């Protein structure tokens, strides 16, 4: 192959915004056909419970089980997986878990209150959720890192019970995933996946307990199901394909940048890899590195499709314009592969995670840096944040008026309530007003 056919865009061109919009276009949840299938599965699981989950698991994952009990793994089985790991894998998993836990410990927020001069107390009570469900993909690829990233923040938050669901096509269990569940303190594991697993977590069955929130990535059926049950339960986000945006001043080895772009492209054919630089010669050198390195990649076919359909090399006038492009894209992963990344950070407004400097490969964030790798995609970093401890906590307002405070503020409430023609509100407040 003599060329990659990666799109070239120029941020100074009149049609740049239109071209960029076409490049970024992505519909994260599916067509009417997928919706119809998911709606049917949700309805059947809601009405038939375990029986429907068993039937769908047998059909979609090619299993042969008769009861939900056959689809649950014991804690002893999880510990067995952890104990049976090769030492190098166990060491790596434990190091990653420790770093993720330590980082998220710093996110914990505590209840607080203050008392006003008249004795009125106001505050906020922070409470962990009772039970959450984490979805871990199975099948083509298995992700022990997803177990750590979803379960450990919940554990740090103080969630009472963590339920994990993971599909096991053809009954194949991934020992590393099970080991991660043991290490992260997952309470129960069910070998179910797809929309039926989301339904079981959302509505509950005789065997699978109903949860308060569902987190974790999945395929188009899982994403569609999560959107459909939102409101019955909380969800983390509707995730699109993985994406990386690299801003480079030309000072990083082109091979490093090429491999950073590959690291996202290899996820799947819809993943997106974009490089932005003011140095057009450097863009050429990175493209040549990609051309030379691609034949060495095990997932070459997937990478090639991803690069052809969704990648881009964007030329900008300077790094100021590069930052403007980054804020416009609001990427999941943003690499600042520049000599002085600290100078750019204050101007970055929208990014899921920011990787700073030549040595900070995005892949480190996927596994063991410490911050969460569950990040907003498809431009949603404009209003969303990485998964964290705060996603597994609720906040309740605390309000306790003293007699003096109730009397003084009762007059304020009365005036506002009568202005809204809500006289019961007004009179309720007026009863507490001291009479001279």
Automatic annotation (TrEMBL):
| UniProt: Zn(2+) binding residues | 264, 267, 366, 425
Supply the enzyme class, top level. oxidoreductase
Q: Supply one GO molecular-function term.
A: histidinol dehydrogenase activity
Q: Where does NAD(+) bind?
A: 135, 196, 219
Instruction: List the active site.
Output: 332-333
Quote the Pfam families the UniProt record gives. Answer: Histidinol_dh
Enumerate the PANTHER family for this protein: HISTIDINE BIOSYNTHESIS TRIFUNCTIONAL PROTEIN, HISTIDINOL DEHYDROGENASE HDH
Q: What does this protein do?
A: Catalyzes the sequential NAD-dependent oxidations of L-histidinol to L-histidinaldehyde and then to L-histidine.
Indicate what this protein is called per its UniProt record: Histidinol dehydrogenase
């Amino acid at each position: 192959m003599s060329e990659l056919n990666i799109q070239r865009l120029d941020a100074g061109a009149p049609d740049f915004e239109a071209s960029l919009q076409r490049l970024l276009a992505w519909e994260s949840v599916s067509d009417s056909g997928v919706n119809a299938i998911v709606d049917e599965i949700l309805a059947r699981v809601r009405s038939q419970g375990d029986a429907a989950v068993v039937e769908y698991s047998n059909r979609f994952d090619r299993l042969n089980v008769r009861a939900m009990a056959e689809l649950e793994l014991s804690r002893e089985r999880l510990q067995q997986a952890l104990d049976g790991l090769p030492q190098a894998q166990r060491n790596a998993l434990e190091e990653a878990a420790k770093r993720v836990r330590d980082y998220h410990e710093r996110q914990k927020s505590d209840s607080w209150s203050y008392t006003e001069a008249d004795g009125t107390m106001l505050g906020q009570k922070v409470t962990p959720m009772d039970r959450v469900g984490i979805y871990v993909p199975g099948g083509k690829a298995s992700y022990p890192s997803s177990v750590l990233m979803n379960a450990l923040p919940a554990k740090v938050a103080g969630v009472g019970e963590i339920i994990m669901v993971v599909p096991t096509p053809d009954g194949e269990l991934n020992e590393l995933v099970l080991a991660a569940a043991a290490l992260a303190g997952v309470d129960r594991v069910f070998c179910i996946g797809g929309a039926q697993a989301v339904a079981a977590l959302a509505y509950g069955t005789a065997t699978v307990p109903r949860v308060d929130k569902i987190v974790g990535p999945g395929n188009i059926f899982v994403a569609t199901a999560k959107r459909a049950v939102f409101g019955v339960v909380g969800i983390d986000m509707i995730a699109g394909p993985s994406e990386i945006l690299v801003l480079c001043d030309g000072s990083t080895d082109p091979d490093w940048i090429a491999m950073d772009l590959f690291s996202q492209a290899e996820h799947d054919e819809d993943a997106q890899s974009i490089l932005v630089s003011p140095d057009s010669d450097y863009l050429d050198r990175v493209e040549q590195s990609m051309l030379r390195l691609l034949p060495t990649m095990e997932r070459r076919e997937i990478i090639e499709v991803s690069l052809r359909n969704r990648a881009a090399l964007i030329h900008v006038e300077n790094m100021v314009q590069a930052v403007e492009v980054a804020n416009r894209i609001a990427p999941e992963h943003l690499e600042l592969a520049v000599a002085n990344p600290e100078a750019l950070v204050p101007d970055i407004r929208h990014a899921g995670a920011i990787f700073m400097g030549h040595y900070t490969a995005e892949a480190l964030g996927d596994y063991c840096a410490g911050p969460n790798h569950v990040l907003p995609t498809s431009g949603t970093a404009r209003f969303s944040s990485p998964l964290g401890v705060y996603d597994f906590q609720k906040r309740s307002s605390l309000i306790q008026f003293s007699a003096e405070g109730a009397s003084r503020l009762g007059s304020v409430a009365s005036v506002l309530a009568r202005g809204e023609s809500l006289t019961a509100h007004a009179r309720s407040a007026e009863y507490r007003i001291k009479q001279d």
